[in-house]
Specification:
The chain is of the alpha+beta class. The longest helix has 24 residues. Bound molecules: copper (II) ion and zinc ion. GO terms for molecular function: copper ion binding.
Amino acid sequence: MASQSVVFLQGLVLIVCASLRSNAQQGYGSGAQCVSPDVGPFAVVAVLTGNSTAKGVIHIDQPAPGQPSTITGQLTRLTPNSIHGFHVHGLGDLSKGCESAGAHYNPTKQTHGDPNSGPHHIGDLGNIASDANGVINVNIVSKDVQLTGQYSVVGRMILVHLVMDDLGMGGNTASLVTGNSGARLACGVLGQLKL
Ligand SMILES: [Cu+2]
Ligand SMILES: [Zn+2]
């Protein structure tokens, strides 16, 4: 009886979802209630501020688990024509501003590096560059940044640094940990955007 009940309930849900979708197609409301949170698409947003003039908003979108994420947004009021390290840090703790964001998100225990080749942290996003007006338009595709599963970045911090990330090629110990990208200019917690 128990398994029959489960089958019955699953059937009922399918019928209700099909009905909602049909109504949505006809313009009578939304079928969004039937999208499982484990299937996607996923989206998060972070509002970046800190102990500098730099600020901005970053979105991350991922169509489905395991697929690449797209990191987009704009940061303003940076030094014109400058290059800045950009990372996901492990903690979402803003109690001491960007200083309590922890280290680069690195659950796979790699050395710091270039996100496009060789060993690197999951949180390594390379460098972003400002234009003559001190504006950075961010548009990064990452196969490492996931919004679901055991390595999800949701609730962690995205952070822009004072200077260029050396991508692990700086020839010193810090290079393989932080990329020598200097002070933390602005950061924000990656918060859930869609149900
Ligand atoms: Cu960083
Ligand atoms: Zn790193």
